[in-house]
Amino acid sequence: MLSVxxxxxxxxxxxxxxxxxxxxxKTRRAVREPGMLKEYDFSKGIRGKYAKRFKSGTNVVVxxxxxxxxxxxxxxxxxxxxxxxxxxLRHRRKASG
Length: 97
Fold this sequence. Notes:
Elements: H1 51-55, H2 65-70, H3 74-96
C-alpha cells in the first residue's frame, strides 16, 4: 500500500522486531531447604569463602562455656594442651618402664 506521504505502509504492528513486551521464560523460584527460615538471607554470601582454610586442615573446637572462661585466647589453650601432653607422655614412660 502506498501512503499519502509517498512511502509504503505495513500491516505489521508498530515496534522493533524481536523485542517482546514480556519474556516467556519461567523465572526460577528459590527452593528453601527444609528447616531454613525465610529470614535467613544468603543472597550476599560468598560461596567457598573459607574452603581453602578448611581444606588446609584447620581444626575448630567448640569449648564448653565453663572451659572457655578459663582460656582467654587460642594461645592459652594451646599452651595448656602442650603441657598436658608432656605430663601424659612422662606418666606413660614411667608406667611402662
